Amino acid sequence: MRFDGRKNNQIRDFKFTRNCIKHAKGSVLVEFGDTKVLVCASVEEGKPKWMAKEEKSGWLTAEYSLLPASTNTRCQRERTKLSGRTQEIQRLIGRSLRACIDLEMLGERTITIDADVLQADGGTRVASICGGFIALQDLINGLIKDGLLSQSPIIEPIGAISAGICNGEVIVDLCYEEDSHAQVDSNVVLTKSGKIIEFQTTAEGEPFSKEQMDELFALAKGAIEKIISAY
């Protein structure tokens, strides 16, 4: 029996509340159980300075933060130096979303995805990716409506979910209690057509078998299909 009584293949109740921030070109409040993440998308004309002048494509980057009251003990704001965890998550969000967009079709623009965790109960990075896609999609639709793009550069939707092995059982969408006790921890990012963007799977204790890995991936794939269908 899982900590919250769910079946092994059952994700938490989830909800996407779009257009929740007035000034953001794309915004969504993502809720997976008690995890709540506010994700916004913004765009600037011009590509990053580090890109070569001859490149005629844009860029997408991401920023992620845990707000002070998001955890059971107050976490410090990262004002001057980002932790290794934060940098890792930002890179994961950024490269996941870059995989679903044609940057050349975007043109010389820079999109920033901001994910702020309001309340953390496991799965904040995968919730940020799901919210990031929704905010990105709404931003792109706005650019098309304003005549700044003739067609969408989005290749196909993506989704993400956590999975793992806890107490010997393969489970999906881990809450904090499960994540902190898991023997295997995984974050899975897939396209709508089932192509793999990210499949991070690490044994925190004993090694796991290929059969367990296949079961873990199958549960994650089914969960992601359900999530994407709700966009």
Structure description:
This protein has helices at residues 84-98, 103-106, 124-145, 176-181, 210-229, and strands spanning 14-18, 26-32, 35-45, 59-66, 109-119, 158-166, 169-172, 184-191, 196-203. A 5-stranded mixed beta sheet has the order 1-2-3-5-4. With 231 residues, it is α+β, with helices and mostly antiparallel strands. The longest helix has 22 residues, at 124-145. The mean pLDDT is 95. Helices cover 29% and strands 31% of the residues. The two termini are 30 Å apart. The chain is globular. It has 5 helices and 9 strands; from the N terminus they run E-E-E-E-H-H-E-H-E-E-H-E-E-H.
Strand order of the largest sheet: 1-2-3-5-4
- On the 0 to 100 scale, the average pLDDT is 95
Strand content: 25-35%
- Briefly note the structural class of the backbone: alpha+beta
Poorly predicted sequence stretches spanning 5 or more consecutive residues: none
Helix content: 25-40%
Write down the overall geometry: globular
- Rg over CA atoms: 18 Å
> Main β-sheet: number of strands, strand sense, barrel status?
5 strands, mixed
User: How many separate helices?
Assistant: 5
Ends apart, CA distance between termini: 30 Å
Tell how many strands the DSSP assignment holds: 9
Query: What is the H-and-E element order?
Result: EEEEHHEHEEHEEH
